[in-house]
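Q: I'm writing up a methods section and want to include an example of the input and output format. Could you take the sequence below and give the corresponding predicted structure tokens, formatted cleanly so I can copy it straight into the document?
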Amino acid sequence: MPEESMNTGKVGSVSADRYEQIVAELREIVENHTRGQFTIGDHALEIEPLRGTGGGEQSDELFTVKQSLFRLAEDIGLSYSSLKSSRWTAARWPKDRRQSGVSFTVHKVLGRIADERERFAAILTPPEGRARWTVDGAKRRVGWTVEHPVTPQEKVSAIHTLARDENVAAAVTTDFLRRPTVVAQVKREDRVRVVEELTRDDHVAAEVTTGLLRRPDVAFRAMRDDTARHQVNHAQVEHGRQAREHFEETHPIAPAVRRIERTVEFLDLVAACHAFVAAAGRVVPGMRDRQLGDDERAIVHDNVARVRATLDWIETAVDTGRVDVDDALARLLQGE
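A: Here is the clean output for your methods example:
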């Protein structure tokens, strides 16, 4: 029913009485149209009965069937699809099951109810609060998208229908994400998924991550995650390595620096060995007459094994210049 005018007693530009007269006149026209559509469908069924199971349309694809129906449609001035729809609807509603006062369109929509008993009972029971069936009411009954959405879910379905085009969906999503009150109602896990989807591109992810890590609270919480912290540390090491390689490949003083670095590495290695020997010399004498427990001895023996492996590694590096670490040594040095 059209929305009522702000003027009391009027519907649109006409009075309430005139509106009721128009409705009564048009209902009679709709009733005649319904009978006419069913008549067309019945005659189409007479020419080409439905041969599919349960009133289906399996046989409609046969060339002879389509040819006959197409000829009939042209001879009476209708489209083939319209004739085919009338024929199918007539097959779904035997003459004694068609309801006066219910439009042909509603019959067609409710015809989608597969079970006959349920279908025939449904047309006799309009939606609660309604005296008669409407097209939207019938669409709700069979689960179709309505023309005038009322409930939140119907409005969501309508938006999905309108946003099937990717460009439209992108524009709508962008507008929605600019509304703080909308974003605030989205569940936390859904917001996380949205951000993950939007940052699949590495360049976008890097830019977003840089901005987020500039926020102290965000950076603090992120670094509480072991994997995230490890990745950041790895990225820092990798960044330093790349910067070093770039310097060594492009800077004119790189050879001189490399010679100095080799000298520094030598001094650092000697200092590390000296520090270890000195520390052991201070600690070991203090263990005189002290008996360690089984767990304590196991820990010490484990560390001694790591020290021996490290010393072997140092000797190999010094003698051969190879500093590669095999998997077994790497696990040992990491305490695994």
